[in-house]
Structure formats: C-alpha cells, structure tokens
Amino acid sequence: MTFKRYKSMPLRWNSIHAKLLATYLVLIGLGTFLLGGYLLWSFYMFFMKMKQAELEIWTTNFTQDVTEAIRKNNIVKIDALVRRYGAPDTITLRIFSANGHLLATSAPDIDRQVKNWSDIPGMKIALSNQTVNGVAKGVLSDEDRLYTVRPIIENGRRVGIIRMSFTLGQFQRQFRSLWITILATVLLTFVLCAFISACLANSLAQPILAMRNFAVRLGNGHLGEKLNILRKDELGQLADELNRMSELLASVDRKRRTFLANVSHELRTPVSNVKVTLEALERGAISEPELCDRFIQTAQQEINRLSRLVQDLLYLGSVEAGVTPLEKQSVSIRSLINRAVQTMELRTFPLRLKIDNDIPDLQLQVDSERLLQALLNILENAIKYSRYPPKIAISGYIAGNQMLIKITDSGMGISQEDLSHIFEEFYRSDSSRHSEGTGLGLAISKRLVELHGGKITADSVVGQGTTITICLPIINE
C-alpha cells in the first residue's frame, strides 16, 4: 500500500510550516530593507562628499582671485567676483573682512536683514582660522544648504573670510523620488521573495508533515505502507529510511504472528495428548495395569516433549534478546569440535555412525558454550537424518579472514524449496514432519553463529545428503 504523498494541513502558528515561513520572511525583510537603506545612505553620502569637494575646489579657486582685491580693499572688484561666481538660485557666495564684517554677497536682498554674522553656522570657527564644512538651514530660510567657510590667509595673517553655500532643495527632491523608487523596489522584492519563500517552506514542511502522519500510522499498526516522497536530499533519504523501517516492521510483525501461530500449534498437540490420556485414565483405564502403563508412558513422552519445547523457546528468546552477552575467549576450534563429537557419542554408538573430523588447530575468539550449543544442534540433525551406511564428515579450512566449518551428512537430502526455510523457527520439511524434535535447533544455531559475527548456510542434493557451512570471522587480538 502506498501512503499519500502529501496531506494538506491548516497553517498553524506553532507548525513547522509557519515557523519556516516566518523565519524566511524575517530574514528577507531584514535583508532587503537593510540593503535598501544602505543604498540610500551610500548614495546620500556619495552626493554630499562630491558636492563638498566641489565647494572646496570653488572656494580654493575663488580665494586665489579675491585675495589681491581684499588686500587692496577693492570693493568693486570683490563685488564683481562674487556676482560672477555666485548663482541666485543655487550658490550663495559671501566675502567677509578679517573681523567678520560682510563686504560682498551674491544675495544682497537677504543678507541686508542679518544683524550679527557671528551667529551664522561656521563663522565663529572661521574666525579662529579654521576651515569648516557642514549642512545647515539657510540664513533666513528653512532650506537645507551645504556650506563651506574658509579663512583667507596671506603671509600667516587672516585678511578675510569666504562663505559659500549650496542649496540642497533640488537634491532632496531628487533623493525623495529615489527613496520612493528604492522603497517600491524593496517592497516588490520582498513580495516576490515572500512568495518564493512560501513555496520553499511548503516544499520543506509538507514532506515533514507527511512523514509525521506516516509515523503516526505506523504507530497505530498500519505496517507495510510506503511513503511516496520523490526527493534526492536528506528528506528523501529520511523517507527511504521510513519506508525501510515500515517494511522491516511489517516483516517482523508477520514473523511474530507466524511464530505465535507455530508456538500455539506445537503446544496444542502435547497438551491435547496429555489431556486425552488423563481423561482416559479418569474414565477407568487406570484399573487395567497394561493400558494404564501405556497411557502414563505416553503422557510422560508428551510432557518431556513439551518441556524441551519450552526450554528451546526460552533459550531462543534469551539469545535474540541478548540477555546473556557473549563471553569470548581464545578457544581451539579443533578441541571444541572434538568435545561436540564426544558429547554425541551416546547417540552415534548404537547406530555405528562414524564422524570424520578434519579441522585445523586454530584459535578463535568465541564463546565456547554458545558455539558448542550451535554445533550440537547441527550434529543432532545430521545424526537424525543420516541413512545407512551412516556417516558424518566435519572439515574446516581458512578462507581469507574467515574460518569455514562444513558438516556433511549422508541423509536423504533436502529439496531446494525447503532448503531456504530450514533455519526458520518450527519449519520442517515433508520428510521430517513426523520426526522428534521441536523444530528450533537450526534456528537457535543460526542466531548463535550470527552473534559471533558469522553466518550459516546450507547446501543439499536430494538422495545424497546435506552440508551445513559455518563461517566465523578470524579476529586477531
């Protein structure tokens, strides 16, 4: 089942969509308005510096022309120079004497109303023989003007003062128009970026919301569904991992259900047999000694079978849960296999079964008791299904950084259909349906070998026998 790719949800202020969008909008708004403000400020400062430099150049050039006229007190020439350099609408030029009295001006109608020139911005500083630049209101108006006041120095002595000012009205009107243009551009940029951010936030938030909903459905038991998010970034990788987890959980759930069904089936048979036996004894079979002994023997066999099944289940559960960690130590594999063969002698002697052992003397880091249990389970299966003349061969060799142990029997073999399932819990092939055992031996062996970082495989030819191969890593410590 494929889970719906995106599930639309209302935008809430505490949702990741809203938080992402808010973050983008704040960053975009801050960035665009800071950039617009910086552009306006840079343009303003550039213009002011440019005009200030022009004023300084003009006053410098004018100083060279007017100095001689001031020294000779030629008011006519001074007035002619002021009228030539000054412009009534934009540039106002004033010439003062050394003590600050007005000698000539390009704006006589305004300047004749001024009583005290020392209060005009820049004049006091110029009277201390310092040049000053700045912005101030007009002499008798509220118009902003850029001004320069420069003392005229000759032979180290102040002979006069020049004050030139430039009106900023036209510039301010142009700057206001520019400010509106930049503001409109910034707002348009913000709107476009906000739209792009909303799309980006939605593209990031919707897959996350879809994965959240998918995880909730997994938690509610809808296992095996698939999340369809086609992305190649980290979100796509996370979606792939969620799909893999969903498949894994579905597989585990199927195995759990199968395991529970198998356990129920395996437990039902011995319990039913014991129940039937007890009922028969209760109905009067106990009064017949021969029948009573047979029923009691049957009940004991079923109870022993039930006991082995419970013990194997408990052992398998403890192995899979990792309750008892491996106690690894350096162990001789040859000695361990010899020990397993000796343990099975009581089973092999009555059958006159021969076990050939050709294992190299190699030390491995293993838990000897756990690995011995795995070997015993495999040998028990091999003995159980060996045919006449019974023979089991155990061989081993080193392949790279692995130790391979092969256990081959002379049994009837296993079909290819059954071979891929023999390590599953309670699985039995058709040829072993009526044999004794719990069906957990090879499953336990597989778990024990995997705990050692190895793997176990099986090869079989029907009518010739079966070979179980154990691969164990060689770890040099």
UniProtKB/TrEMBL annotation:
Gene3D superfamilies linked to this entry: 1.10.287.130, 6.10.340.10, Histidine kinase-like ATPase, C-terminal domain
Annotated organism of origin: Gloeothece verrucosa (strain PCC 7822) (Cyanothece sp. (strain PCC 7822))
Enzyme class: transferase
Domain called Histidine kinase: residue spans: 262-476
Listed name of the protein: histidine kinase
One Pfam family named in its UniProt record: HAMP
UniProt EC number: 2.7.13.3
GO cellular component, one term: membrane
Catalytic activity: ATP + protein L-histidine = ADP + protein N-phospho-L-histidine
Keyword field: Kinase, Membrane, Phosphoprotein, Transferase, Transmembrane, Transmembrane helix, Two-component regulatory system
Start and end residues of each HAMP domain: 202-254
Transmembrane segments: 20-41, 178-198
Subcellular location: Membrane
Major location (coarse): membrane
Any one GO molecular function term: phosphorelay sensor kinase activity
